[in-house]
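Internal tracking record. Fields below are filled automatically when a chain is submitted to the structure queue. Please do not edit lines marked as system-generated. If the sequence contains nonstandard residues, flag them in the REMARKS field before resubmitting.
Queue: standard
Priority: normal
Entity type: single polypeptide chain
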Amino acid sequence: MSARFEELDWRRTPMGEISLRRRWDPALGAQVYEVKLGDDFLMSSAFTEGEIALARLALAELPGADLDVVVGGLGLGYTAQRVLEDARVRSLSVVEALGEVIEWHECELLPLSPGLVADPRCRLVHGDFFELAGSGKGLDPQVEGRRFDGVLVDIDHSPRHVLHPRHAAFYRPEGLRRVAECLHPGGVFALWSNDPPDEEFGAVLTEVFARQEAHVVEFDNPLQGRKAANTVYVARTADS
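SYSTEM-GENERATED OUTPUT FOLLOWS
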């Protein structure tokens, strides 16, 4: 067992103070890695089922091989790792607004870091996913207009609970149309949410995409002695 609590890094950023912490959780019987932005918990390794399901459910909708995928939000790396476990994936671009988070992985401060940084298919991109998505130039800063098979996003808490007010436009029809333009025909957009399925947001997805479904991902929460749940939205563009 490691020390009960350790702060691995702390920085001031334009978004506020960010810290990476590691602690021993006796209820889980495991080390837990956490990232805080100010007083807000951004991510935790205590419960990662939703992040993993984001990749699993999105990739299940994609036939064929040589898949090119974008993940918006690097975090602790669980979505990215699950994408790379699929041998059909040719390339993965992970767009992360906080350079500090990318540095943590490059310095291998997190359990999944070595596998991510060593995989030649994986590229960590320091950039604002929402800015790229709204630019009309695409999600790859190096190749304007590049299209992808899948775009997976795990940044905000939910479409209604965003980390910054300017993110809200992304979840409206025009914002999602920009994302759809970055996808090949039959491509998949998937979104993680900490809230229950939102019918209003589902209607927006239906307006933009050929079909969509909200998946409820349940998992045990021993800290509260009950089940917890996330939502994963999966939407697909028309085949042609």
